[in-house]
Design a protein that fits this description.
Elements: H1 2-24, H2 28-48, H3 52-76, H4 81-86, H5 88-112, H6 119-123, H7 126-129, H8 135-143, H9 148-169, H10 181-185, H11 189-192
Helix pairs in contact: 1-2, 2-3
Length: 204
């Protein structure tokens, strides 16, 4: 039991420290790397809680896709760090005010947070404690029964966001040639290849 406690405090401390460094790091690439470290430690905490499926999804989706995408975007951008730091003091009062508002909201939420009366019943439920079903099976039963409509709503929100991103980027701009798939598929040999009979010693 002491090993689990040591592992929990170790992973939690590294997750909090890496989350702090995400905000405090001066280099955006270092911030993304600390973000990946925070995701790995959060996945380790999920494993300690017995939620192996959530840990796997966290590593595959967030570390393998989202964080790597952030890293590629940050590395591809030509960011002038000296110019970026020049406006820090100008926006510091506004940022401090927003930070205080968020801190006050967190304090209010933490102060009014209580355990649900059904939490003890759900924890002691033999259906989940018996080990007859896997972690992914139990999560699917809850997600697709009690929270089915919320799950579908989240899917619709992501679909609308994806369509909006496509519409914003799929626009005609001057000087940029767009791909015409229909013209490519319907292209004939006569339109692209021209056969000429060249006499001997008269070629290029």
């Amino acid at each position: 039991m002491i090993i689990y406690a040591i592992a929990f405090y170790l992973f939690a401390a590294v997750a909090v420290a890496s989350g702090t460094m995400v905000v405090a790091a001066r280099n955006p690439v270092h911030s993304v790397l600390f973000l990946i470290l925070a995701f790995f430690n959060a996945a380790a905490l999920f494993v300690l809680m017995g939620a192996e499926f959530l840990a796997m999804v966290l590593v595959i989706v967030y570390v393998g896709a989202v964080a790597v995408l952030f890293l590629f975007v940050v590395m591809m951008l030509d960011i002038n760090f000296a110019e970026l730091r020049q406006g820090f003091m100008r926006y510091l009062p506004v940022g401090a005010l927003i930070g205080l508002v968020l801190l006050a909201e967190l304090i209010l939420i933490g102060g009014t947070w209580v355990f649900s009366p059904d939490a003890e019943v759900a924890i002691s439920d033999k259906f989940y404690m018996s080990g007859e079903i896997t972690n992914a099976h139990a999560l699917g039963l809850v997600l697709y029964t009690k929270y089915a409509y919320l799950f579908q709503t989240a899917g619709l929100v992501l679909l609308v966001a994806m369509i909006g991103a496509i519409v914003l980027t799929f626009r005609s701009r001057p000087g940029v040639r767009r791909q015409k798939i229909g013209a490519q598929v319907g292209r004939r040999v006569e339109d692209s290849v021209e056969l000429r009979k060249v006499k001997s010693r008269e070629g290029v």
